[in-house]
Write a structure and sequence with these properties.
The chain has 493 residues and is α+β, with helices and mostly antiparallel strands. The chain has two domains: 3-134, Beta Barrel (OB fold (Dihydrolipoamide Acetyltransferase, E2P)), CATH 2.40.50.140; 162-311 and 372-481, Bira Bifunctional Protein, Domain 2 (BirA Bifunctional Protein, domain 2, 2-Layer Sandwich), CATH 3.30.930. The chain contains 15 helices and 19 strands. The strands form four sheets. It has an eight-stranded mixed sheet, sandwiched between helices. A five-stranded mixed barrel has the order 1-2-3-5-4. A hairpin with a 5-residue loop joins strand 4 and strand 5. The longest helix has 23 residues, at 165-187. The model has no long low-confidence stretch (mean pLDDT 93).
Length: 493
C-alpha cells in the first residue's frame, strides 16, 4: 500500500469529522443477519420483492465497490455471507450520497432500506440510511489475486480469513469438530475438567518442555507437555470419567505434522483398559466425522479414507516384520537389533536404545504406509513408562496408537496403576536422562504419592485435535488448521 493511498483514506476521515460524522461511532443499532435474509428472500421473485419491499437493516464489511456516477453498488460481508447494497443519488440526496462515496473497501457500515432484485437477479438492499461504523486505513488484498504468499497468510491471518474462503471453512469445521467431540463424551458420562498449564514438574510424555519462571515463588516452572498425570490424580480422587481439551507445549521441531503448541483431548475412564479405549476412540471419531461431514468417507491428499466400519488392530512387532523383515523381539538388545538393521541394508539412525531403535524402524518404514485407520498395538515397555505391562509378554505394554493418513491421531494405554512398578520405570527414565536423553520422563514423587493411595484399573486416551482436523479438512500442513501458528520473527535488516 502506498503512502498516498493511506493519506487519501485519512483525508476522507478528516472530511467526515468536519461534516460532523463520527467514523468510529459507539453504537451500531439493530441489524438483520445476512445469512437469515438470504435464506428468507433468495428464492423470492423480483416482482414479489418489489410489491412487498421488505425493509431491512444490515451491517458488515465492504468487500467491493462499483461506481457508475450517480449509482453505486457495494458488496457487504457479514458472518461469512455476502449481500449487495445499492445507492442512488436521486433517492439519497446529495449529502448522503456523498457520504456513501466516502466509503472505502474494508470499511464497516450499517445500511437500512428495502430489498429488491437487480436485472441480473442479485438480491440487493436499496440504501436509504447509511452509517459508517469503522473506517479502515488500509485496503484489503486485491480481489482477483487474493492473499497468496504463505508467509503473509500466516503472519496476517485476519487477511487470510477475509479473502480466502477455504481458511474460514477450516476454522468453522474445527469448531464443529470440538462441539461434536464434547457432545459425545458428555453423553458417555465424562466430566470436562481443567488442569494446570504451568506445572512444577512436567510429565505424561517423552518431550522437552518449555521453561518459565514463577516470580511470586522465585521458582522455575514448566508449560505442560501432557495433561496425563493430573487427570490420573482426578481418577484417584474418585472422578471416574474425566476429559480435558487444551493446549500442550513441547519444545521440539516444526514440520508438516508437528507444532510446539498443539491441542489435545485426553480422557480417562476407570474400570477400563486399552481395548475399551479402542472401542471408545473408534466410536468417538466416527461420530465426529459423521456429524461434521455427513458421512464417514473423506478425501485427504487425493486419497479416499474410509473412517467407517471396524478398524484393524495390528501388533507393532508384526507390522515391522512385514515391512522390514526384522523380528524386533528376536533381537532383544540394541546392538543385536542394530546388526539386524544393517544386515537388511537399512538405516539404523542415531537411536541409542533398543526401544528407540524399534520406534525408528516403525516411524521410517511403517507409519507412512498407514493411510486407512489402523490401530498399532503392544508397544515395547521402554517406550511407554506410564502403561501397564502385557500379561502375555512382560517386554510389552498394553498400548495402542491410531494412525490415519500416515499420521498418529490417538495414543492410549491400559494405565499403569502399580506404584512400585511405576517408581521403577521412573528411575529407569531418570538413568536415560542422566545419559543424555532430554526427552526421558522425570521422576514425579508427588504423582507416586497419589498413586500409592490407589488408582483403579483405568484406560487413558489422547487424541491430537490438530491432526484430526487436517484429515477432515484435507489440509496439507498443520499450520493450515491453526488460526495463529507461531512464525519465526521477521528480519528487519
Amino acid at each position: 500500500m502506498s503512502d498516498y493511498e493511506r493519506q487519501a483514506r485519512l483525508d476522507r476521515i478528516a472530511a467526515l469529522r468536519k461534516a460532523g460524522v463520527d467514523p468510529y461511532p459507539a453504537r451500531v443499532g439493530a441489524t438483520d443477519r445476512v445469512a437469515a435474509l438470504r435464506a428468507r428472500w433468495d428464492d423470492v421473485e423480483a416482482d414479489t420483492l418489489a410489491e412487498q419491499a421488505p425493509a431491512v437493516a444490515v451491517a458488515g464489511r465492504v468487500m467491493a465497490i462499483r461506481s457508475f456516477g450517480k449509482l453505486m453498488f457495494l458488496t457487504l460481508r457479514e458472518g461469512g455471507c455476502d449481500l449487495q447494497i445499492s445507492g442512488k443519488k436521486a433517492e439519497l440526496g446529495g449529502e448522503r450520497f456523498e457520504q456513501l462515496r466516502q466509503v472505502d473497501v474494508g470499511d464497516f457500515v450499517r445500511v437500512e432500506g428495502p430489498l429488491w432484485r437487480t436485472r441480473t437477479g442479485e438480491l440487493t438492499v436499496d440504501v436509504r440510511e447509511l452509517t459508517i461504523l469503522a473506517k479502515a486505513l488500509r485496503p484489503l488484498p486485491e480481489k482477483w489475486h487474493g492473499l497468496q504468499d504463505v508467509e503473509t497468510r500466516f503472519r496476517q491471518r485476519y487477511l487470510d480469513l477475509l479473502v480466502n474462503p477455504g481458511v474460514r471453512e477450516i476454522a468453522v469445521c474445527r469448531s464443529r469438530i470440538l462441539q461434536a467431540l464434547r457432545a459425545f463424551l458428555d453423553d458417555r458420562g465424562f466430566l470436562e475438567v481443567e488442569t494446570p498449564v504451568l506445572q512444577p514438574l512436567y510429565g505424561g510424555a517423552a518431550a522437552r518442555p518449555f521453561t518459565t519462571h514463577y516470580q511470586a515463588y522465585d521458582q522455575d516452572v514448566y508449560l505442560r507437555i501432557s495433561d496425563e498425570l493430573y487427570l490420573k490424580r482426578l481418577i484417584i480422587g474418585g472422578l471416574e470419567r474425566v476429559y480435558e481439551i487444551g493446549h500442550n507445549f513441547r519444545n521440539e521441531g516444526v514440520s508438516r505434522k508437528h507444532n510446539p503448541e498443539f491441542t489435545m483431548m485426553e480422557c480417562y475412564q476407570a474400570y477400563a483398559d486399552y481395548r475399551d479405549m479402542m472401542d471408545l476412540v473408534q466410536d468417538l471419531l466416527q461420530h465426529v466425522t459423521q456429524a461434521v461431514t455427513g458421512g464417514t468417507r473423506v478425501t485427504f491428499r487425493e486419497q479416499e479414507i474410509d473412517l467407517g466400519g471396524c478398524w484393524p488392530r495390528r501388533p507393532m512387532r508384526e507390522v515391522i516384520l512385514e515391512k522390514t523383515g526384522i523380528d524386533v523381539l528376536a533381537a532383544p538388545d540394541v546392538e543385536s537389533l542394530r546388526e539386524r538393521v544393517r544386515e537388511r541394508g537399512l538405516d539404523a539412525g542415531a537411536a541409542p536404545t533398543w526401544g528407540q531403535l524399534v520406534d525408528h524402524l516403525f516411524s521410517e518404514h511403517v507409519e507412512p504406509t498407514l493411510v486407512q485407520p489402523t490401530f498399532i498395538v503392544d508397544y515395547p515397555v521402554e517406550l511407554s513408562p506410564l502403561a501397564k505391562r502385557s500379561p502375555d509378554d512382560a517386554r510389552l505394554v498394553e498400548r495402542f496408537e491410531l494412525f490415519v493418513a500416515g499420521m498418529e491421531i490417538a495414543n492410549a494405554f491400559s494405565e499403569l496403576n502399580d506404584p512400585q512398578d511405576q517408581r521403577a520405570r521412573f528411575e529407569a527414565q531418570r538413568r536415560l536422562y542422566d545419559a543424555g536423553d532430554e526427552e526421558a520422563h522425570p521422576l514425579d514423587e508427588d504423582f507416586l504419592l497419589a498413586l500409592e493411595h490407589g488408582m483403579p484399573p483405568t484406560g487413558g486416551l489422547g487424541v491430537g485435535i490438530d491432526r484430526f482436523v487436517m484429515v477432515l479438512t484435507d489440509a496439507a500442513h498443520l499450520r493450515e488448521v491453526l488460526l495463529f501458528p507461531y512464525m519465526r520473527p521477521e528480519h528487519t535488516g
